TrEMBL record, chain A:
<keyword id="KW-1003">Cell membrane</keyword>
<feature type="transmembrane region" description="Helical">
    <location>
        <begin position="103"/>
        <end position="123"/>
    </location>
</feature>
<feature type="transmembrane region" description="Helical">
    <location>
        <begin position="184"/>
        <end position="202"/>
    </location>
</feature>
<dbReference type="GO" id="GO:0005886">
    <property type="term" value="C:plasma membrane"/>
</dbReference>
<feature type="transmembrane region" description="Helical">
    <location>
        <begin position="284"/>
        <end position="310"/>
    </location>
</feature>
<feature type="transmembrane region" description="Helical">
    <location>
        <begin position="238"/>
        <end position="264"/>
    </location>
</feature>
<feature type="transmembrane region" description="Helical">
    <location>
        <begin position="7"/>
        <end position="29"/>
    </location>
</feature>
<keyword id="KW-0472">Membrane</keyword>
<comment type="similarity">
    <text>Belongs to the binding-protein-dependent transport system permease family.</text>
</comment>
From TrEMBL, chain B:
<dbReference type="GO" id="GO:0030288">
    <property type="term" value="C:outer membrane-bounded periplasmic space"/>
</dbReference>
<dbReference type="InterPro" id="IPR000914">
    <property type="entry name" value="SBP_5_dom"/>
</dbReference>
<dbReference type="InterPro" id="IPR039424">
    <property type="entry name" value="SBP_5"/>
</dbReference>
<dbReference type="InterPro" id="IPR030678">
    <property type="entry name" value="Peptide/Ni-bd"/>
</dbReference>
<dbReference type="GO" id="GO:1904680">
    <property type="term" value="F:peptide transmembrane transporter activity"/>
</dbReference>
<feature type="domain" description="Solute-binding protein family 5">
    <location>
        <begin position="68"/>
        <end position="419"/>
    </location>
</feature>
<dbReference type="Pfam" id="PF00496">
    <property type="entry name" value="SBP_bac_5"/>
</dbReference>
<feature type="signal peptide">
    <location>
        <begin position="1"/>
        <end position="25"/>
    </location>
</feature>
<comment type="similarity">
    <text>Belongs to the bacterial solute-binding protein 5 family.</text>
</comment>
Amino acid sequence: MSYFLRRLAVFPLVMLGVSIFVFIAIRLVPGDAITAMLGTEGGMLTPAQREALTVYFGLDQNWAVQYLRWLGGLFRGDLGISVTYGQPVLQIILERFPLTLQLALMSMVIALLIGLPAGVYAATQADRPSDLLVRVFAMIGQSMPNFVVALLAIYILSVGFGVLPTMGRYVPFREDPFGNLAQMILPAIALGTAFAAAVTRISRAAMLDILSEDYVRTARSQGFSQRYVIWRHALPNALIPVLTLSGVEFGYLLGGAVIVEQIFALPGLGRVVLDAILQRDYALVQGVVLFIAFNFMLVNLLVDLAYAALDPRIRYGDRP
Amino acid sequence: MTSIKKTAAALALGLTTALVAPAGAQTLNVAWSQDATGLDPHTQPGFASIRLLELLYEPLVRLDANLELQPAVAESWSFSEDGTQLTFRLDPDAVFHDGTSVTSEDVRASFERILDEATGAVARANYTSITGIETPDAQTVVLQLDGPDAPILNGLASVNAAIVPASAIAAGTIGTEIVGSGPFTLAERTPNANARLAAFEDWHGGEIAYDEIAVNVLPDETALLAALRAGQADFALINDPLVATLVPQTAGLELNAAPTLSYYVLQLNAAREPMGELAVRQAIACAVDRQDILDAALLGEGEVTGPLTSPAYRSDPQGLFCYEQDQDRARALLAEAGYADGFSATLMAATGEPPTASAVAQLIQSQLAEVGIELEIEMQEMNVYIDRWLAGDFDMAVALNGGRVDPYTMYNRYWTRDGNLQGVANYIDDTLDSLMSEGRIETDEAARREIFANFESHLAEMAPWVWLFTGNTYTAQREGIDGFEPSPTGSLFGLVDVTIPD
């Protein structure tokens, strides 16, 4: 328990570090909200006009004042107002996050549903042709960028079948379950392909390690069936590296899948943060990145806790 | 296994049911890849914002697809004898979306807002000749000018000079609450995702044949084409010539192409050596093969151009200085300037803005290499590019610069002594400066054309920049979506004339 509390205590410190880093990084990038909005027309502004816009975008105060003001807002749950959306940053995040969360969950389900059985199967068939086949597919899946999968899927569907999932707007599951799944399945496959391939390879390697362990041999020599040995003895231990991989990957996906969201025109977090960076919408970049960092840490914490559940030998800090 | 099959079947079913959702006969589904960055018509210069705002707000006058002036909020207009007064009669039927009439007070308030430097109005520089705004009655507005200003009418034909309600200015709600007098009202909008525009029943410009426009922002250009193919979009705006050329090859789709006013140009920075030497700049002008670059980078989708791109002023560029590639002359000019062995310099371009920028830069690099000029290409993110461009911090730059209908409005920023962007142009001489002043006050069409023809040929000969070509603006629609007329400004205002089959 004390480990859990210690981990929680580190949270605010890491968040503070992230907030400072993002705050400075986005301001070090050349250009500001004025150049992003006006482009080369910015050169037509009179000094007084420029001054007025500088005040409007809050660029006239020094960084320390801006940062402290923003930090103060954070404690009141106020992430600031986005200048490009004219809405509170928190509201934008909460509108976009369900899509990103669903996409991440669906990709992970696809990855685990395909990757785990394939990996376990390949391990039991080690070095036979079927193992080789799984490994080749895993290699292809992992080396094919997700935007290629996405563009191929769109091309085949629209040219071959004249159909396409809804683009440009999110169809929430509660409003239209079928429409929602139809919209999300292709992006989830595009994201899940490489993820599944990675899961396959990790679970295969982990299973191979464990199948050669003494206790597995012992179990076999006691006459337990192959299936029982694999599912009861080997798999739970092989899940540890898979869990680590999935945790990290899921954490990334919660940050939004920029390219896949871009191609399928899904209004998720990835596109928000990309547009925000291009338009130098400081408040929005800061808010979204902080939110992503929080999710990432939370997922990692949950993964650590899950280790203990999977393997009773893993105990954090608590002496017996 | 069966449960997996069931799930798969259910998903497939869901796919088809959602995909063939009918595009209701009364909705025009429009897709574009870049969304508006803001909704204040006075402060948004970007084309992405302007094409949306043009459907919501109206200026006093507007340009049609042939770039002729047409009534908008104003039904008629006239200059006084001495050219210092410009009188507008407002259309008595013009109403804002909230039902109130558009009056001369709204016009006055709008221009006061634009001219107020605190607004940051982007086109303010085009209206600084206005010294006073009189409103003799609710339907009449008189602009007092500090002298004859022939280009101001074209300058006013911009949504950047939109007439907004005086009450909205007073309430400070411009840009947040959309109350214009345009053909559509903004029913809902999620920035960078989608928007819904409802036809405004009381629009004074006439009736619209459908009920609403549903806009989807599809950031990937190939997705635009896929959306058209799948029937998810009826009409799409396409930027990438590569994607545009695929449209006519698809059954059931039509492409509209119109030459743009904006132009590709190789900007030479005369403030840096050796580009300060006339012979060196001329050598570069002679070394490039414009048609070759156009063919390779834009698949030939465009036209070689001189400095003037407006149809009324555009001429055959072959008469201009060295528009036929002449490498021997280029080498001779370099030798004359003392650079017989060539020199090296950097060439700046923006990543993805336009999508063809890097291809254009590479072609220029290889063409100039043939006469001994070694270029190092610097690809920059758009914002970084803009910062350096505005500061004149480059040797050479590939640019896609915006054009205007009137040559004076288009170029006074660069080629006059006190032009706002003289620091970007970095070249000026007395001939250019005086021809521009003459063009500003001359109201006779034929005389103006001659002035600007001289301006153009002098500019090409001095070669501070090497003008290359204009591209096309593309829209595409599904068969049966009729009535849209493309405009060289890229405006989508023509959507008001579109009909959708039942």
